[in-house]
Amino acid sequence: MGELRLMKGNEALAEAAIRAGVDGYFGYPITPQSEVVEYLTAEKPHERTGMVVLQAESEVASINMLYGGGATGKKVMTSSSSPGISLMQEGLSYIAGAEIPCVVVNVVRGGPGLGDIQPAQSDYFQAVKGGGHGDYRLIVLAPSSVQEMSDFVPLAFDLAFKYRNPAMIMSDGLIGQMMEKVELFDPMPRMTDDEIKEKYPWATNGKPVGGERRIITSLDLDPHRLEDHNHHLQEKYREVEENEVRYELFDCDDAEYIIVAYGSSARVCQKSIQLAREEGIKVGLLRPITLWPYPKKQIREFVDKGVKGFLSVEMSAGQMIEDIKLAVEGQARVEYFGRYGGVIPSPEEVVEAFKNKFQED
Amino acid sequence: MAEITVQEIIKPENLVYKKTPLMTDKVLSYCPGCGHGTAHRLIMEVIEEMGKENDTIGVAPVGCSVLAYEFMNVDMQEAAHGRAPALATAIKRLWPDKVVFTYQGDGDLAAIGTSETIHACNRGEQIVIVFINNGIYGMTGGQMAPTTLVGMKTSTSPYGRDVHLMGNPLKITELIAQLPGTYFVTRQAVHTPAAVRKAKRALRKAFENQVNNIPGLSFVEIVSNCNSGWKMTPVDANNWMEENMFPFYQLGDIKVDGKLVEK
Ligand SMILES: Cc1ncc(C[n+]2csc(CCOP(=O)(O)OP(=O)(O)O)c2C)c(N)n1
Ligand code: SF4
Ligand SMILES: [Mg+2]
User: Fold this and answer.
1) Which terminal residue of chain A has fewer beta carbons within 10 Å of its beta carbon, N or C?
2) Pair (A32, A166) in one structural domain
3) Domain count, chain B
4) Residue A206: inside a domain, yes or no?
5) Could you tell me which chain B residue has the CA closest to the CA of A193?
6) What is the pLDDT of residue A360?
7) CATH no. for residue A67?
8) Please, which residues 218-257 of chain A have a Cβ atom closer than 8 Å to chain B?
């Protein structure tokens, strides 16, 4: 059993970064995730593992530090909250285009604009539909506990390097700020420079003696070659969709209705399905863990098994519901309930909303 | 005197100069007469002479030189417009033993990338920044840059730069020299053989500072021409540069060994 600690989600994530053998963290303070860079500077990871930690001058700089550092084959990471993630979109597009692995954490807050500093999920479209320009995808993981804030750090890096693609951990102000018991995984050593050179021959860390130089770029002025590159990216995304869908089911075996919710909303809905079942309503919960790739097939399987309706519960104004509808393809009812602007729904209001939407069935 | 034939010229004993293998054989995409190509060659010669071919990572952001990776035969990264110093910061911090440089235009360094540039300089990142100041946005077709001279015509200052409407030309190199994080700041040119020799010495010094682990950033500005953007022949562009650019952007060292040079 790993070391047990009582920690905030943001701190667990920061500790996990050190333990996962991350080489560099670059970030700019913003509530509700400043604990990440604060924890990292206080912990002196350069002494613990040799990890570089730098407070950047802006989120534009942090994401481009990830681009440069990631392009050398090192494990690099940043964290921010919604407005800062908006600033990173150009960089993310370059990183996706140049196929650089890295991990970006968004501890989402209420928007639009400066919004507030309360938990929200309103950056869903930005995360899963590609917030920057061009046809690209991020691999998006949505933790719903402090434990997952820790566990998803090495997972996100594994996926990022496996597919040479940026991965995002999309959390929110609730998961980031709340304290829970967390079992920390044992520290993994950082890779040596020689190991990196051996394992990632594409990385620009000094031309091999007697070998060819490496080029990291997202540019190709020839439209046909650029189309080929896009074909390659789309092929890779299909592979990710095939292999990396992750989700969790609660009480779905006999369910006539299914609530779909992720992150903090899923925590709330775990209680909601319990309350509904006490009233004899057969409802289950599907919690997407990967928001992209989305568990489309699994939702469709429930439709084929005769599930009558789905309720998308979100801390946003009806974003994820679009992906449920795409999965269901009009073969079952899909309804939405959400609170937003930083308001967290209560388990009771979810049950109430469920009954209002589906009571005439 | 008998005429020399090409065959005689290319005899090994007659050759006094050879292209560095750190420039690829790819034909330069720059306009004939443009200073970018010369600046590329000087950097690559310095890297070669220092024996750092296998330990160098260059970063060239958007601008005419975005394709520098086609020509420079070392590991290269292409950056978004303005962001090269952020990439270089991370590369150097993660690989402190490597030689890291950026190659940025004036629009890139002094407009969209001012923040990344100033902060990398102020933190004293141990990198070399090469700054090609041609007073214009070459790549996008000759629009006004922060460095465009007062009265100078560009496609977005078609009647000449008017300070009241468009603000003043920015001497960002003087500004950067004020920052405690810079160790060596100089302004050079590459339009004559004498200027090329001086510019190469300056580049050599900048890269040596980095290799010798001297704390602080080395910054080499090269005032260059953009004959296409200025709408002049290469010869006229060089003359115009001497007459107009050099009086405002005076050549020479601005900061040496961490100390401002008294003028
Ligand atoms: C975010 C962004 N904005 C604008 C551009 C368009 N753009 C490309 S290069 C350039 C100006 C380059 O000028 P400079 O840095 O002086 O380099 P030069 O071409 O003169 O060498 C601009 C505006 C871009 N590529 N990206
Ligand atoms: S447009 Fe100007 S800067 Fe660009 S290659 Fe031509 S002359 Fe050089
Ligand atoms: Mg220019």
Assistant:
1) N
2) yes
3) 1
4) no
5) B95
6) 63
7) 3.40.50.970
8) 218-219
Q: How far is CA A124 from CA B4, B70, B102, in A?
A: 72, 38, 35
User: To the nearest whole angstrom, how far is the Cα of A172 from the nearest Cα of chain B?
Assistant: 27
pLDDT per residue as tens, chain B (263 positions): 567 888 887 888 888 888 999 999 999 999 999 999 999 999 999 999 999 999 999 999 999 999 999 999 999 999 999 999 999 999 999 999 999 999 999 999 999 999 999 999 999 999 999 999 999 999 999 999 999 999 999 999 999 999 999 999 999 999 999 999 999 999 999 999 999 999 999 999 999 999 999 999 999 999 999 999 999 999 999 999 999 999 999 999 999 999 999 88
Residue A239 lies in a domain: no
**CA neighbor of A88 nearest in space, from A116, A143, A32, A130:** A130
Quote the CA–CA distance of B104 and B117 in Å, as a whole number. 10
- In this complex, the residue of A71, A91, A206 whose CB is nearest that of residue B98 is A206
Out of B139, B143, B245, mutate this one to test ligand 1's pocket (max ligand atoms within 8 Å of CB): namely B139
User: What tens digit of pLDDT does each residue of A70-120 get?
Assistant: 999 999 999 999 999 999 999 999 999 999 999 999 999 999 999 999 999
Q: A193, A209, A228: which is the final residue of a domain?
A: A193
Count of the separate structural domains present in chain A:
2
Find, among A297, A300, A287, A355, the residue nearest to A335 by Cα.
Answer: A355
The Cα A131–Cα B233 span in angstroms is: 44
Q: Which helix (H) or strand (E) holds A198?
A: helix A193-199
Residue B55 belongs to domain spanning:
30-260
ipTM score above 0.90: yes
Q: What residues make up the domain containing A275?
A: 247-358
Its pTM surpasses 0.95: yes
Find the CATH number of the domain harbouring B166.
3.40.50.970
In a domain, B13, yes or no: no
The angle at the Cα of A308, spanning A303 to A313, to the nearest 5 degrees, equals 90
Assess whether A184 and A261 both reside in one domain: no
Q: Are residues A168 and A283 both part of a single domain?
A: no
Q: Work out the average pLDDT over A241-255.
A: 98
| Chain length of chain A | 361
B23 in a structural domain: no
A146 and A27 part of one domain: yes
In a domain, A219, yes or no: no
Does A32 fall in a domain?
Answer: yes
- Residue whose structure tokens are 């190469």: B200
Helical (H) or strand (E) element with B261? none
- Same domain for A176 and A84: yes
